[in-house]
Amino acid sequence: MKELNKEEFKSEVEDYVKVLFRKSIKEADDQQIFQAVAYAVKDFIVDQWMATHRTYEEKDVKTVYYLSMEFLMGRALGNIIINLKGNQAIKEAIEELGLNLDVIEDQEPDAALGNGGLGRLAACFLDSLSTLGYAAYGCGIRYKYGMFKQVIENGYQIEKPDDWLKYGNPFEIKRPEYAVEVKFGGYVSIKKDEETGRNKFVQENYQSVLAVPYDLPVVGYNNNVVNTLRIWDAEAIDTFNLDSFDKGDYQKAVEQQNLARTICEVLYPNDNHMAGKELRLKQQYFFVSASVQRAVMKYMEKHDDIRKIHEKVCFQLNDTHPTVAVAELMRILVDEYNIEWDEAWHITNKTCAYTNHTIMSEALEKWPLELFSRLLPRIYQIIEEINRRFVLDIQRAYPDDYGKVERMAIIYDGQVKMAHLAIAAGFSVNGVARLHTEILKNQELKDFYQMMPEKFNNKTNGITQRRFLLHGNPLLADFVTKKIGDDWITDLKHIDELSVYTDDEMSRKEFMNIKYQNKVRLAKYIKEHNGIEVNPRSIFDVQVKRLHEYKRQLLNILHVMYLYNELKKNPDKEFYPRTFIFGAKASAGYHRAKSIIKLINSVADVVNNDKSIDGKIKVVFIENYRVSNAEIIFAAADVSEQISTASKEASGTGNMKFMLNGAVTLGTMDGANVEIVEEVGKENAFIFGLSSDEVIAYEHNGQYNPRDIYNTDGDIRAVLTQLVDGTYSSNLDEFRDIYNSLLDGQGGRPDMYFILKDFRSYAEAQERVSAAYADTAKWAKMAMLNTAKCGKFSSDRTIEEYAQEIWHLEKVKVEVTTED
Ligand code: NBY
């Protein structure tokens, strides 16, 4: 690996400030310095980037295309520097220029091209693919506006546009030479092919846009590998053609320009919720068609037999959002390469694989036939034919069971069901944690599992320790390396070697002192950004994730209200001071989620300003939770709140980031929590609440009545009453909807999230947390064991499993030569 040369680097930064801004370092502002430093770093990685792609071509390796509507990358600069192992040299170079690396890193806007777990998982996967040396492209959309910026005004969430490209993105490279056309609308005609004499299906009178790729580098850790995240932008295909200026063409030209302008404008800010908007389907087909077309072209540049594409290409579908890929590949094979249907279908089957990220019914993608066939007429025909044949297969397998077709068909009730298409068309269907995969097999996708059990497999999620420990928590990273060496950076299993130090008092003290310093860092952030003073000696109890009813931020804040009542009743009660920290964005149209944010802020106002409780409880809502501040938050947490209604959280990945940073899980037996507890031991976590089997049983038999709890439990009744009696808002209707949802549920069904049902068990687990924390040595050991036992949860392990069991990739070594 080429060494970073300090002097060279310094003069590059000076040159870039000059060339880009006609300024000296002294004259440039922080953003300009960031840009110059980023260009200097990019200069350094470009050789590795070229060497990587040259090596892939020489070795003709199989490539995975990770198709995803979302890549929640966060900031690039700090991460790239770390993966180049250039931290020391660059830090020194920058200091010698009279600058500060932290301040420079802070100038970079987050690349927030994603909502939450699904998008961040894609980002962690790219980091691991490069670090492990696998050939991969991330394929997505270059949204002009990413995840909205959240501002809290009077306790309410306000959404502001995220203009992340305002100053340009120094790391991207536009590749107009790889632009492709993507067609929408029109109709399909049958034409005789002159050469073959066969019928051909051609789309006519369509509108099209030009998909133009921008490449971003994905730098592996200390191995010369740089993969590519390719995000597509839309441009009008040709500006006004003045020669044919008749009315029809003029209209069409304007429409095409509008289409190009709108397609990549903004990320849909829904997490686990399908909005069903036409523009969203346009976005999906736009980036999928462009990515699949390019992958096929690239394959055919080096190979002559399209029938063997599965030997060199795999498309991994990140949830159902890119599922039109299977129909697009069929279209290319059948319409453009004249391959017979059956053979095209087999090729497609061997090339596509699908990951399921949720069982929430409102997240299942279903598109109305009318919309789908109007927007994608040829793709729709192909899906109809896929469906016709699939229904025949179902009937052959289950001749006497008509319910099977009803439940399994791809097209049914006037809708296209994307999950059914993905399962029928791919060779692999995977869930994202063991429990989740079992629920898929035995409940949600039971019929599909019975018919095609060989397709189903589990890939428990993971996270990259390089961003979430090495970059986010340098103090703990140094501590770990000092104790056990640095193998953990690329092989997290080694972190288990820390276990022996949990019995050593000095090590425990050091560990807790690091936690304390990280709490001081977060307290400073909170003071600067929220104006709230928090005590770093208090327990930092943290719930950060998207706001959703199933994640139960409401359970957490109701418990805070309960604790506050308890303290008011018994002011002299032993109570270990706690800071309850929340961070969450609510989807813009999700009213109840927004009310819950308002409730958290209202409770914070009352509790934080009540002198009588002596600062024993503080509540903080951190504005604009995102990847960059998450790194600081995880490092400072004592308690990790993972309290979803059992069965609803497919995996969770925040739970793993907390664990890595030595926070103890307070959670339900849901998603990957089950495996976390298995690794760390149930004595080193605080588990409560209904099991997923119990929740599912209640869902089937409907025997849950929250009013019974309300009527018999006075403490719970008091808390609920305070939602509507003016304690937290002079507007008595402010939280009425929340109150009603807890007691009456929705659509005649009692609260589907079992908040009151789990309340007592949660409160009791919280008491165990307080007791455990008061025993300093015990807590230190638990916390440290969480770090030590998190080896399984590296995305390196997850990607190794995908690579071996689904993608069948080979590892590549990259040498940078003078050629580069
Ligand atoms: O994927 C999350 C799961 O909730 C979480 O349990 C899991 O750990 C993570 C990674 O596997 N799912 C998620 O983040 N989903 C979305 O963000 C999402 C976004 C958009 C839509 C659906 C789901 N949509 O239909 O528009």
Automatic annotation (TrEMBL):
It holds the Pfam family Phosphorylase. This is Alpha-1,4 glucan phosphorylase. Its cofactor is pyridoxal 5'-phosphate. Allosteric enzyme that catalyzes the rate-limiting step in glycogen catabolism, the phosphorolytic cleavage of glycogen to produce glucose-1-phosphate, and plays a central role in maintaining cellular and organismal glucose homeostasis. Phosphorylase is an important allosteric enzyme in carbohydrate metabolism. Enzymes from different sources differ in their regulatory mechanisms and in their natural substrates. However, all known phosphorylases share catalytic and structural properties. PANTHER family: GLYCOGEN PHOSPHORYLASE, GLYCOGEN PHOSPHORYLASE, LIVER FORM. InterPro entries: Glycg_phsphrylas, Glyco_trans_35, Pyridoxal_P_attach_site. It comes from the Bacteria. Signal peptide: none annotated. The keyword Transmembrane does not apply. It is an enzyme of class 2 (transferase). Keywords: Carbohydrate metabolism, Glycosyltransferase, Pyridoxal phosphate, Transferase. Belongs to the glycogen phosphorylase family. It catalyses: [(1->4)-alpha-D-glucosyl](n) + phosphate = [(1->4)-alpha-D-glucosyl](n-1) + alpha-D-glucose 1-phosphate. Its EC number is 2.4.1.1. The keyword Glycosyltransferase applies.
